[in-house]
C-alpha cells in the first residue's frame, strides 16, 4: 500500500507541476499517519476484545480496513486519502493485536507457535502478492488502494462462520458453547485434557477479569512486570532492529544503490519483488522450526546474523556513495545481498517470534491489556524509526551511519533476549506465566481472598 500511495502521489505531483501548481510530497506523512492509527487501534482493541470477544474484534478490524480502503480508492483529494489511510491503520492495529491472541487461545499447545507464525506468513505472503498486483495495475493507483478491501471482506465473511475462542467463552460463563467449540476444534483424545487446562486457567483469574482496563494496566506493571517488559521489549527491538526501515524504504535503498528507473516509481516494485519474496520464504521456514527448536533458541542464534546483514547494507551504501566507478558498481550488489540476507534472518526470527511469545506470556485476565500495550509499543516504535530514517538518510554518510546504528541495536536486542526471554515452546500458558512471575500467583490469591471478604462484609 505504501508503494501504491507513492505512485499515486507522484502522479498527482506531476499533474500539479504541469499546471504550474505548488504541491508537497506527503507520501511518508500518510504512511506515518497509518502507523499512528495502528497504535491507537491496537491500544483500544485490548479492552474491547476482553469485553466483547476476540471474534467480534477481528470483524471490527475488517470493517475499518474495508471502509478505509474504499475511501482511499475513490478519494478526490489528499485530505480524504489521509482519512482512509488512518482508518486502514486502525484496522491493521486492531488485527495485529487480536489475531495472535485468537490463534493462541484456540490452538493446541504443541502447534501454538506454528499457528501464530502462519498469521505472519499470510502477512508477508500477502505483501508479495500485492507487489505482483501493483505491477500488473501499473499507474492505476486507485485500483491498487481500493482492491485492498477485497481480502478484508473475504476475512469478514469467513469470521462469521468461525467460533469464539473456548477460553473467552468459559471466562464469560458460556460453558455449553465453549464445550461445543472445543469439540469442534480438538480430536477426542486431546479434548478432555484441553478442557481441563482451559477451565483451570479461567477459574484462577475469574475475579481479576472484572477489573477495569486501567487497573489491568497497573497490574501488568506492578505484578506481572517481567511479562510486560518481555512482551513490549520484544516488539520494541523488532522495530529498532530495522525491519520496517528496510520494508518501507527498501525501494529507495535499491534506487540509491542503482536499481530501478528514478523517473518511473512503479519500476521500483519490480526491483523490490526479491525483498517481499525473501521475507515470505523466511516466514515459511519459521513455521516448520518454531515449535521444534523453540522461540528463544531461534532468536539467540539469528539476531547476530541480522546485525551482520545490516553492516553489509551499510558497506554497500558506502561503496556506492564514496567509491570509484568500479566500487560503486560493486556497492549496489553488496547492498542488495545485505538486504536479502537481512530479510532471510529477520523473517525466521524477529519477524514472527515476538508475536508468538506475546500471545503466550500473559494471564487470561490481562491477555487483552498485555497485547494492547505490546502491540502499541510496536507501532509507536515503528513510527519513531521511520521518522528518524527520513531525517538522517538524506546523505550517503547518514545512510551508512543509520544502518550501523541499527546493527548496534541488534546487539542490545540479543542481550535483552539472552537475559529476559525464557523458552516457551510446548508449555501451557499458565505455566509460562508462573515461571516468568512466580510471585504473582500469591498476590492474585491475596486479592481473591480480599474480594471475597469484601463480598461477605457487604452481605
UniProtKB/TrEMBL annotation:
Q: Which PROSITE patterns match?
A: MFS (PS50850), SUGAR_TRANSPORT_1 (PS00216), SUGAR_TRANSPORT_2 (PS00217)
Its topology with respect to the membrane? Multi-pass membrane protein
Name the chain's protein.
Answer: Hexose transporter 1
Q: Which UniProt keywords apply?
A: Membrane, Transmembrane, Transmembrane helix, Transport
The family line of this record is: Belongs to the major facilitator superfamily. Sugar transporter (TC 2.A.1.1) family.
UniProt key word Transmembrane: yes
Give the main location. membrane
Question: What Gene3D superfamilies does UniProt report for this protein, alphabetically?
Answer: MFS general substrate transporter like domains
| Domain Major facilitator superfamily (MFS) profile intervals | 1-425
Localization (cell):
Membrane
Per its UniProt entry, which superkingdom is the organism in? Eukaryota
Quote the SUPFAM superfamilies the UniProt record gives. MFS general substrate transporter
The catalysed reaction is: D-xylose(out) = D-xylose(in); D-glucosamine(out) = D-glucosamine(in); D-mannose(out) = D-mannose(in); D-fructose(out) = D-fructose(in)
What are the recorded GO MF terms, alphabetically? transmembrane transporter activity
Quaternary state and interactors: Homodimer.
Establish whether keyword tRNA-binding is in the entry: no
Could you tell me which species this protein originates from?
Stylonychia lemnae (Ciliate)
Its GO CC terms? membrane
- Mind telling me which InterPro entries this protein's record contains? MFS_dom (IPR020846), MFS_sugar_transport-like (IPR005828), MFS_trans_sf (IPR036259), Myo-inositol_Transporter (IPR050814), Sugar/inositol_transpt (IPR003663), Sugar_transporter_CS (IPR005829)
Which residue ranges does UniProt annotate as crossing the membrane? 26-46, 58-80, 86-103, 115-138, 144-162, 269-290, 297-319, 339-357, 400-420
